[in-house]
Write a structure and sequence with these properties.
Elements (H helix, E strand, L loop, with lengths): L14 H13 L10 H10 L6 H22 L30 H4 L6 E2 L2 E2 L18
Length: 139
């Protein structure tokens, strides 16, 4: 069996990442069969409106298989004693008091707007108008 290359997803030093890296080196790619087929990668790419050549499909198949392997490793962990959290790392986000304040005037809000129409921001059209013209038909 050839020596497995470095795991493609090793980015940090969390306990779960270390566990996954140990499993990677112990089992190679953590699986003898792929969890995702190139046809599925092509379908996902089409849904995401991505155009992938054959080399990119092969690379994405390998990368997505590694991600699914990581998820499979996480599923095997006993998390009964782990406290649920919203972030993987401590996240201190102090909030200011929500004190009511008078609203800004339209002139203050639009002071730095590149274009305005009355009391509104003027932006390029992004959906077709009545004549069928989209962003390309704007001056």
């Amino acid at each position: 069996m050839p020596e497995p290359k470095d795991p493609p997803l090793y980015r940090g030093r969390t306990r779960l990442t270390r566990l996954w890296v140990e499993m990677w080196y112990e089992h190679g790619t953590m699986s003898t069969s792929s969890r995702i087929r190139p046809e599925e990668v092509r379908e996902i790419a089409a849904l995401a409106r991505l155009r992938l050549d054959d080399d990119e499909v092969a690379r994405m198949t390998q990368d997505l298989d590694a991600i699914l392997g990581y998820v499979a490793a996480l599923r095997e962990l006993d998390t009964a004693s782990v406290e649920p959290m919203t972030h993987a790392v401590p996240f201190d986000c102090p909030l200011r008091a929500d004190d009511p304040r008078p609203p800004l005037s339209a002139d203050e809000v639009l002071a730095n707007a590149p274009r305005r129409e009355g009391t509104f921001f003027q932006v390029p059209r992004v959906v077709p108008g009545p004549g069928g013209g989209g962003a390309e038909s704007e001056p």
